[in-house]
Each structure stands twice: as C-alpha cells, then as structure tokens.
Amino acid sequence: MILIDDRFLPESEASVSYMDRGYYFGDGIYEVFRIYNGQLYEKPAHYERLIRTAREVKMRLPAPIETIDDRLTELLERSGVRNGILYVQITRGVAPRSHAFPPAETKPVLLAYCNELERPVGKMQSGISAITLPDIRWLRCDLKTLNLLGSVLAKQEAAEAGADDVILHRDGIVTECSASNLMIVKDGEVSTHPADHLILHGITRAVVLRLAEENGIPAHEIAFSLEALRQADEVFLTGTTMELFPIVTIDGVSVGGGQPGPVTRKLQAAFEKTIPI
Ligand code: PMP
Q: Which of 70, 94, 116 delimits the end of a domain?
C-alpha cells in the first residue's frame, strides 16, 4: 500500500512522473517515523522537523499538517504494520527540468509507505564497527532533504571496508554518522555535536539527551575532535530505526574493550521504557 498525494494505491499501481523534481534535483524533503505497536513514536517532533525543513527550503506542503497527519494515520492503519517504519517524502512537484522553482501552481508530490522492521536488538547488544571519513556533505545538514549522495558515498565506503557505519568529521571535528547522530562518553559524561547546520537535529538524539538529564548523566552539546573520539570510554549512535547502537570498533581499533559500556546500556534501558506498549 502506497500513499501518493491523497490516493492509496497497491504497489503495482504506484508511480511518479519522470519530471518529478525529486528525481531530477533531489528537490524534496522527507521523514522516517518509527512505528512501535501500531503507533508513531515522537510524532509531533517529526512533524515539527518536516515543517521546519519545508520552510527552510521554501517548499509549501501539499496540505495542512493536520490533513497530512490524517492521511498518514490512515496509511498506517491500512498497512497493518505494528512494528516498523513510516517513510514520507514530499517533492517540489512535476515540471520541466529547470533549476529555479517551478510555477507557483505546481503541486508538491507526497509519497508515503510503511514497512515492517523489528527492533535491531542484536546490534543494540553487540555493537557495531565504524570507520572515520571526511564529511563532504553540504552546509545545511540540519535539513532532512533528499540530497543524500554524501551519505550514500560514505556508507558505501564503509561497506567496502567491511565496517557497519561511518563517523564523519569536518577538519577533525566529529559531526555525526551517515544516517544517525553520534555521542561519546568520557568519565561518565556524554558529549554530542551541537544542533547547528552541520548535523541533522535527530529526534532520537533529543530523546537521549532528555533521558541523560532524567538519569543524572551529565550531557553536553559541544563539538569534539577525532582525538577525543579515539580516547572516549564509550561511543554510540542514535537514530530512529537503530535507537542506540554502541560503536565498539573505530578504524579497526576497539573502543572501551570492544564491549558496550555502562552509560550506553543505561541509556538504552531508559530508551526502551519510552517505547509505547
Ligand atoms: N543524522 C542523519 C544524517 C540522519 O540521516 C538521521 C536519520 N534520519 C539522524 C541523524 C538521526 O535522526 P533521527 O533520530 O531523527 O532518526
């Protein structure tokens, strides 16, 4: 079941135009919601980010957010997915290829679907490996747009190196991972890059910072170096589909003895308690 604008279509009938600006230019925005027990997790935060991204790229939404919410809710119900993700993207619409915005009457195109996805508990427990790479993305990483080639190339480089993910840095300052935020723990204190234009303002990141505060774990939104990353006691990433993944190997060197650390585990446990039953 695919939602295109306001139509619910079987996958075999779902198609978009070759002149869609999302296809030509990556001229679109998106969100990925986590579905836990048939409910959208942190729904208002995702809508807020979608609205902000639309505003910042000067794109109008195809309908008021309440109408979009009604449609996505219906999609979720019709899909029958209980645990998984809901993907929604909105492009600037269909128009002949020309970089500047299309005529004002051009309708944005919305596409959404749900997929089953179990919680990746194996990797949450065992942790993953990562390599470090220069962050070659653009300077508005705070916007959740379709232009993901920087992340695609980084993730592919990790795959070719036999690693699970990538830790990105700009001139030695660690920003985030290819599709998640990064946190380090040193002497019991958490640090993560400030929510500026160089990282996506992750919703899981915000939840984890809140949980750190509630659990008496000092947390700092502060830029840190590759050197600090390598000296960290614990490293973990945060993201909608991953929740918290410990990173136990970086560039082939183990972190914290190659095991998920106590602060990471405490935050994982706290996160699990926020999941609706
Ligand atoms: N950074 C990037 C580059 C991402 O693509 C994502 C996942 N969309 C995140 C961080 C994590 O954000 P969230 O917790 O909202 O999934």
A: 116
- Whether this model's pTM surpasses 0.95: yes
List the catalytic residues. 144
Per-residue model confidence (pLDDT) at position 114: 98
Q: Is the dihedral of CA 141, 143, 149, 155 positive or negative?
A: positive
45 CB near ligand 1 (under 6 Å): no
Could you give the ipTM of this predicted complex? 0.99
What single string gives the DSSP state of each residue in 118-136?
---HHHHHH-EEEEEEE--
Residue 191 domain-assigned?
Answer: yes
10-residue block means of pLDDT along the chain (277 residues)? 97 96 98 98 98 98 98 98 98 98 97 98 98 98 97 98 98 98 98 98 98 98 98 98 98 95 98 94
Amino acid at 33: F
Q: Is residue 127 located within the same domain as residue 101?
A: no
Give the pLDDT of residue 277: 80
Q: How many CB atoms lie within 10 A of CB 159?
A: 12
Residues 217 and 247 occupy one common structural domain: yes
Closest CA to 60 of 91, 88, 26, 22: 91
Which pairing describes strands 84-91 and 28-36: parallel, antiparallel, or unpaired? Answer: antiparallel
Residue 212 Cβ < 6 Å to ligand 1: no
CATH number for the domain including 192? 3.20.10.10
Q: How far is ligand 1, taken at its centre, from the CA of residue 13, in Å?
A: 30
Is residue 148 situated within a structural domain?
A: yes
